[in-house]
Amino acid sequence: MGYIENELNDLEKGTIYTSEEIASIVTHKENAFVLCEDTSSFPNEDASSRYLVKSRIETFIHRNDGGSYFIPSSKQLIYIVKKCM
User: How far apart are CA 51 and CA 14, in angstroms?
Assistant: First the structure.
């Protein structure tokens, strides 16, 4: 796993992480997005819920920003996770 000085700095595909660890990535890693179809939030203090990283993608995100086409200047990092039952 990608830990530096006890701080998680990346998620690996096929690895299971806690809600707390995913919240840390969302909070500290710039340009990182987490997509999860079965969870609306990742509480920082939740060390019991587990999530599998199904995919890790670095890509350009093209979107409509207030009626205008937003042209991305850099790639974004997207993690797709699924809650473990």
Answer: 10
Give the 3-state secondary structure of residue 61: coil
pLDDT tens, 4-45? 456 789 999 999 999 999 999 999 998 899 999 999 999 888
Stated pTM of the model: 0.83
Answer whether 7's CB lies under 8 Å from 13's CB. Answer: no
Place of tokens 């707390």: 20
Residue 85, token pair as written in the block? 């039952």
For β-strands 76-83 and 32-35, DSSP reports them as parallel
Where do runs of H (alpha helix) occur along the chain? Answer: 19-28
